[in-house]
Q: What sequence folds into this?
């Protein structure tokens, strides 16, 4: 009887041990990650290492042609870590893998990667993301350490420009720029953002004007006024001073000047202006108006002979803006569609000789 109990204990003990071995084997086997997860992990690992070619080969996708691929470059890619990578669905024909990227300040960003199974094997359905840069006062686009001139696509009615990017966390418009300052931070860019590659994730930088930018815009506006003052006769319609519809006869403090000849302009005082960052643009507004002197000859109060005169005219900023090139150069964007030139000489001080 005692021998039977020993045998039963041995059998039970051996069975438990065998079950433990089998269970450990099953757990170990189930711990092998699916091929979908391995593919996605290798793809994001290549991107994290800034290995653009390796990432494209892993995704089995061709590099886009032309300007669209400008930011598929190591210098454009950001720095982040890979968190969890796990399969969340698998139908046999397609699967979804969830990826978590960990950025600065340990902030986590999650995206879902869809995979397809075809004749060529497993592949990522949409490996690249599309971003659409809006037209702003910044006449360049910038991703990471790569900056390029803004080249709007004529096919886009909104004058935007599209690029293809590898998924990841990017720094947009954060290179050195003395004129404006763009809020720092990482931007997640994934293929499913903004409705996919057909539309692209919209990018419009939020920026403020630096003190050096205020001075640069003011200097550029002064130079713009200088160019306008070189005109003989009526200045161009986009200039901040002119005779407007009064070119035939001008009233100046109770007197009239008509039948003008030999008109010339001279800047006597530049305006004091401010620049406001608004809606992606840089709007110039007057703080204190400037003065431009108009000289020429004409009939005074419609009687001869023709006499020389000078007349002080104000400068008036009309919806002018400023743009900033990739090298920091500031240019003035005059107002559009104002028709006749502005009238700023009415009732100014008139001198006749």
A:
């Amino acid at each position: 009887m005692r021998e039977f109990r020993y045998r039963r204990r041995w059998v039970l003990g051996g069975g438990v041990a065998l079950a433990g071995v089998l269970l450990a084997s099953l757990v170990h086997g189930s711990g092998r990650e699916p091929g979908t997860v391995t593919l996605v992990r290798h793809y994001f690992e290549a991107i994290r290492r800034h290995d653009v070619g390796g990432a494209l080969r892993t995704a089995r996708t061709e590099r886009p042609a032309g300007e669209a691929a400008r930011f598929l470059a190591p210098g454009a890619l950001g720095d982040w870590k890979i968190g969890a990578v796990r399969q969340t669905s698998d139908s046999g024909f397609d699967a979804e893998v969830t990826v978590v990227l960990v950025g600065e300040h340990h902030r986590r960003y999650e995206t879902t990667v869809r995979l397809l199974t075809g004749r060529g094997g497993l592949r990522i359905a949409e490996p690249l993301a599309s971003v659409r840069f809006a037209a702003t006062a910044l006449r360049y686009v910038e991703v990471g350490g790569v900056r390029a001139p803004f080249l709007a696509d004529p096919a886009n009615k909104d004058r935007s420009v599209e690029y293809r990017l590898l998924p990841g966390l990017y720094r947009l418009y954060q290179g050195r720029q003395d004129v404006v300052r763009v809020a720092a931070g990482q931007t997640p860019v994934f293929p499913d953002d903004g409705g996919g590659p057909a539309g692209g994730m919209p990018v419009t930088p939020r920026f403020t004007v630096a003190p050096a930018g205020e001075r640069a815009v003011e200097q550029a506006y002064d130079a713009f006024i200088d160019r306008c003052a070189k005109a003989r006769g009526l200045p161009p319609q986009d200039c901040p001073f002119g005779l407007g519809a009064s070119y035939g006869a001008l009233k100046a403090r109770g007197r009239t000047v008509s039948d003008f000849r030999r008109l010339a302009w001279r800047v006597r005082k530049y305006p004091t202006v401010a620049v406001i960052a608004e809606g992606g643009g840089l709007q110039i507004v007057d703080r204190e108006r400037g003065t431009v002197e108009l000289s020429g000859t004409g009939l005074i109060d419609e009687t001869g002979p023709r006499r020389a005169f000078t007349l002080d005219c104000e400068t008036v900023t009309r919806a002018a803006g400023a743009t900033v090139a990739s090298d920091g150069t500031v240019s003035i964007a005059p107002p559009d569609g104002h028709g006749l030139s502005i009238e700023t000489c009415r009732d100014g001080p008139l001198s006749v000789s």
Observations:
- Helices lie at 2-30, 35-48, 52-59, 211-229.
- The mean pLDDT is 85.
- Residues 35-209 form one domain.
- The two ends are 142 Å apart (CA to CA).
